[in-house]
């Protein structure tokens, strides 16, 4: 339902979560995917992770290790978004849930994702344009989840559609 490639799963999962907050959908960037893949490969070869980003580029990182590891971009994006359960909308600047806020940051327009595996370890990297988590801009860029009455999805080989009914108004993203 989210697609068969890392690119489709990355874009569709991000846009699903963004839709829940009423922010515009992202487009996929091959350039951001390239930079994310380079960093995922570096982390896998070095065995370490840490923040690595260029100016104006946002970043989310995930690392998972276990035998038979099936961690992927769907699970990583869900983990990042899951931080939003504890996000303080009253005092957004004080929140430490920066993975969540980057996923739903309103002014972000593009995403590119990559996965690298070595042994039982999986490294997932998402790069974003434009970067989120800018001090002083949280309130205008991190919107609360919208009240959803019904949601349904339609996927075909070319497009992924979100139709969400928000208080009797159909929102198509």
Automatic annotation (TrEMBL):
SMART domains: SCP (SM00198). It holds the Pfam family CAP. Residues 5-136 form the SCP domain. InterPro entries: CAP_dom, CAP_sf, CRISP-related, SCP_GAPR1-like. Transmembrane segments: none annotated. One of its GO terms (cellular component) is extracellular space. This is SCP domain-containing protein. It comes from Ciona intestinalis.
